[in-house]
Write a structure and sequence with these properties.
Length: 357
Amino acid sequence: MSGIRMRNLIDKLEKERILSKDELVYLLSNFNEEDSQYLFQKARAISQKYFGNRIYIRGLVEFTNYCKNDCLYCGIRKSNRNVERYRLNKDQILNCCRNGYELGFRTFVLQGGEDLKYSVDEMEDIIKTIRDNFPDCAITLSIGERSYDEYKRYFEAGANRYLLRHETANDVHYGMLHPKNMSLHTRKECLYNLKKIGYQVGAGFMVGSPYQTMENIAEDLLFIHELNPQMVGIGPFIPHKDTPFNNFKAGSFELTLFLIGVLRLMIPNLLIPATTALGTINPLGREKGILAGANVVMPNLSPVNVRKKYQLYDNKICTGEEAAECRMCLQKRVEKIGYEIVVDRGDFKPIEELVPC
Ligand code: 5AD
Ligand code: FES
């Protein structure tokens, strides 16, 4: 039997779009399968209202796996000597975009480690060239912490969106996941700078990262409420064999889905991806993510010969498939649950501008 208090909290979250920290901790600590279904029904109804059965796709170009950082959870951290490092040049990146465009992608996500080998001028040139060649597409960057001026130059060169997960909104927890030279303060500053410049911003965190508590997750949700980003990416933590966290267990699938539902109720028009990590811990992970309230999928456009080298965690899916294969596979998967992939930039829209379907 699902507790009346749980239903009341879910109803309250839907109505007020926020709960207190204590209420969030209670909700996250006590939900059962029935409560999940109650939440997902509401989350799906909201997605349906604003997005119909439309799922947006983003083409991910993992253009470098060099990274100057040493985040303890990440497979491409600087001190992992077992990674074969690679960089894609401008032509290779453009080829990924061309291929993606043919397949119906209208958003390209340039993601990489924090690789300072690409100078600001070079990055700017790559962004400008994509902008000139694909005027009807959105360009998303996901290249970590940079200065205000650098972010501004990329924005002016034509980038529209930026993904930078905050990873955890708790200072002490942040310190347990990252080396000493990194801080939550800097991470937040970057996120606020990006918003100020005018990017559509994506924050997010891993579910079940080492030492994470339910309180921490409540803090993540409250931080997201305060930042009010356009996108939030969450996925389960998955250990990588060559990291200090190799012996920790993966995050909970059910809790990740539950949090997708919570986010949909908190910010009805939010862009929420059903992440690759979710698809990695469960064969139907992405489909279940959509049924819990997600409305975005982000398949890979990187050349197949580099995919295995961009392993942030073990057993990542889709590392052997061509972009076209994943595109078709996803289309089938999404259709099977009654949704459709659309050829659309899929920009964030303020709620007033979203005509209910
Ligand atoms: N498990 C799950 N997600 C991970 N990420 C990095 N390492 C892992 C891991 N081991 C996530 C981080 C990062 C995003 C690109 O991938 O949240 O921001
Ligand atoms: Fe890549 Fe199914 S989405 S193989």
